[in-house]
Amino acid sequence: MGSPLTIILYCQDSIRANSLSKQCFQLVDHYVDIYSDYIDSSELNRLCATAGKAEEPTVVSPELYAILWDSKSAFQQSEGTFDITLGPVTRLWRKARKEKEFPSDSLVKARLALTGFTKMQFDTVRKSILLLQHDMQLDLGGIAQGYIAQKLIDLLKQEGISTALVNVSGDIVAIGAPPGTNGWTLGINMPESESELLPKHVLIKDMAITTSGDVYQFLEHNGKRYSHIVNPATGYGITSQRNVTVIAADGTLADWLTKACSILPVGKAKKLAASLHAEVLIVVLKKGKPVLYSTKGFKKYWKQISSQFK
Predict the structure, then answer these.
(1) Which of 166, 184, 194, 206 has CB 3.0 to 4.6 Å from 174, enough for a Cys bridge?
(2) What phi-psi label fits residue 170: left (phi over 0), alpha (psi between -120 and 50 degrees) or beta?
(3) C-alpha torsion sign, points 147, 149, 153, 159
(4) What average pLDDT score do residues 102-118 get?
(5) Please, what are the domains in the chain?
């Protein structure tokens, strides 16, 4: 998926720990071969190659169908702010960031015309997919990392591991607590900063947490900083100076919800998170200073309670 991955697990037997870690990475390779849009031969890219060409829906693996169905549900729940059909647009911006060349408005509009969940049909009986739009491309980058992190934790739990953390490019799922602690202590970076963290840390146990921002992936143009998170309504990366952190019971939910809450207005983002039994923290830079907004339940995860919420 073009992302780093770290697994931490506690086990009394080092040989078994090594064996379990190998099992985990084998499972990762399995999912990458299905979900990656960086690998031409992946099942996702083979499906996309049928876009606008196939007369009948393509039967896909249970793993691919499950994440595509979850993505459709996320699209509906997020008022269209999370959209995996943005592949043609996200690929355009990926190339633009690499070459540091801002795309023309006409090119963005042309790519945006290739997107839309109305151009994707699900056959729930045969577990098959039909992509109606020629050159349509699906991008699972906003959901697959959290999905994979959750699947790895599920595997470890099935194998009897009670304390572990999986981090897929910042999408973290953790169970139990390291010895001598009450949980996993994690820092949240300031908007647009690689090294500066918020003064308070969070403490989680048996939860997933994800933070989204533009600190690592962005493109500057005419004094504006365009994030890698694209607004499906415009086809452009968002320009708000905010970090979004979601804590949820499931890695998949935490992953896509951070993207949706990065686009939605603060009030709607908090309402959406609460409706899904998740907690969200939105850190916005105003005149260079961080202002924090959150759902009410987020405060219980601070190691020291903060009074900065609004």
Answers:
(1) 184
(2) left
(3) positive
(4) 94
(5) 43-131 (1.10.3980.10), 177-301 (3.10.520.10)
- C-alpha 38/C-alpha 43 separation (Å) is 11
81-90, pLDDT tens digit by residue? 999 999 999 9
Tell me the one-letter amino acid at 162: S
Residue 56 φ/ψ, nearest 5 degrees:
-120, 150
Residues composing the chain: 310
Q: Hey, what amino acid is at 74?
A: A
Residues contacting 11, CB < 8 A, separation 6+: 17, 20, 161
Q: Which two tokens stand for residue 256?
A: 């896509």
Give the residue carrying structure tokens 């109606």. 132
Average pLDDT, the chain: 91
Q: What is the largest CA-CA distance in the chain?
A: 59
Over its C-alpha atoms, the chain yields an Rg (Å, rounded) of 20
Q: Quote the CA–CA distance of 306 and 310 in Å, as a whole number.
A: 11
Distance CA 207, CA 23 (A): 22
Cα separation values, 208 from 89, 265, 277, Å: 28, 23, 12
Which tokens in the block code for residue 260?
Answer: 């949706």
Q: How far apart are CA 39 and CA 32, in angstroms?
A: 8
C-alpha atoms less than 13 angstroms from C-alpha of 106 in its C-beta half-sphere: 0
Rounded to 5 degrees, what angle do the CA atoms 216, 240, 274 make?
95
